[in-house]
């Protein structure tokens, strides 16, 4: 630390004047000791720390500069064990502090959408139990707002509860029912293309009128999907979808100003691809959603072959 202090100020004051100023303090050091230290070869720990810090910086920048200690620790131990072996969490925390980087923090805010009347809504089939034994059993959906310089933009996500993948999404500059239905159509088309059966799936949302429209209901019914809604004004009844909105805002939307619909749509597309394919999710063992989905498919196929 003393050597670092001298290095920081040597160009302005010179080494010897700084050393003289430190005499009589707990930070005193001889000029010869300073130069001997500078000639000393860095320790193995220092060299490893320097290399780790470069990797941490690269990982941080490659992941929307949003990873905190837990996700960074898991990412390093997933992808870089061949270079560093198992790295302790405290090491990651120490080096991130030295780099002055930290995880993104979510804001506590929740926009409101127009709600359908209770008598128009199906019952709540989920009852805050956001879990399933496999993919295409439970999807959750929600809408949120994005402020831009050109006015409000609106976004819908549909998420598979099992592997946390965003299976459908849409961004528009209106709140018509197609905002939600386009996201649903995207999800259904992707499942049809992959040959995955969605019949009997439960689709859970809040009571937003977009999700309760006749055309949305018809689209669900055509694929034998069962609708479920939470109670009015209670975000806990759609907590997983609300949490994804919060992540989306914290990691992407709240960190810059947006010009309008096209920019938000383009960057949301890029963020969704990263979220599904690369981002580590604590709820699924710090793995990306597509990895968990692919693992389930492979295990299921193996079981069918064995049978």
From TrEMBL:
NCBIfam families: transpos_IS3 (NF033516)
Annotated TM spans: none
Protein source organism: Micrococcus lylae
Protein name according to UniProt: Mobile element protein
Function text: Involved in the transposition of the insertion sequence.
InterPro entries for the chain: HTH-like_dom (IPR025948), Integrase_cat-core (IPR001584), RNaseH-like_sf (IPR012337), RNaseH_sf (IPR036397), Transpos_IS3 (IPR048020), Transposase_IS3/IS150/IS904 (IPR050900)
Ranges of residues in domain Integrase catalytic: 131-296
GO biological process: DNA integration
Protein origin, superkingdom: Bacteria
Pfam family, one: HTH_21
Gene Ontology molecular function: nucleic acid binding
């Amino acid at each position: 630390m003393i050597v670092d202090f001298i290095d920081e100020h040597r160009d302005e004051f010179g080494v010897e004047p700084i050393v003289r100023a430190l005499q009589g303090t707990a930070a005193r050091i001889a000029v010869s000791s300073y130069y001997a230290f500078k000639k000393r070869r860095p320790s193995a720990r220092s060299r490893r720390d320097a290399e780790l810090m470069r990797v941490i910086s690269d990982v941080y920048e490659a992941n929307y500069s949003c990873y905190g200690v837990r996700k960074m620790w898991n990412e390093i131990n997933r992808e870089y064990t061949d270079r560093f072996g198992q790295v302790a969490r405290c090491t990651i925390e120490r080096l991130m502090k030295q780099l002055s980087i930290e995880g993104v923090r979510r804001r506590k805010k929740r926009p409101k959408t127009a709600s359908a009347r209770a008598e128009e809504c199906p019952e709540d089939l989920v009852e805050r139990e956001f879990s399933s034994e496999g993919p295409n059993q439970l999807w959750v959906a929600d809408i949120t707002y994005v402020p831009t310089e050109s006015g409000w933009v609106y976004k819908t996500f549909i998420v598979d509860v099992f592997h946390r993948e965003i299976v459908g999404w849409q961004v528009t500059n209106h709140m018509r029912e197609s905002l939600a239905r386009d996201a649903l159509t995207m999800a259904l088309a992707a499942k049809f293309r992959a040959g995955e059966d969605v019949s009997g799936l439960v689709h859970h949302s809040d009571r937003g009128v977009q999700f309760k429209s006749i055309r949305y209901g018809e689209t669900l019914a055509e694929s034998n999907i069962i609708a479920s809604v939470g109670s009015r004004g209670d975000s806990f009844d759609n907590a997983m979808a609300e949490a994804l909105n919060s992540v989306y805002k914290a990691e992407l939307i709240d960190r810059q100003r947006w010009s309008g619909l096209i920019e938000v749509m383009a960057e949301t597309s890029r963020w969704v691809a990263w979220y599904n394919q690369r981002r580590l999710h604590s709820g699924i063992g710090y793995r990306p959603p597509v990895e968990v989905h692919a693992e389930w498919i492979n295990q299921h196929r193996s079981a069918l072959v064995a049978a």
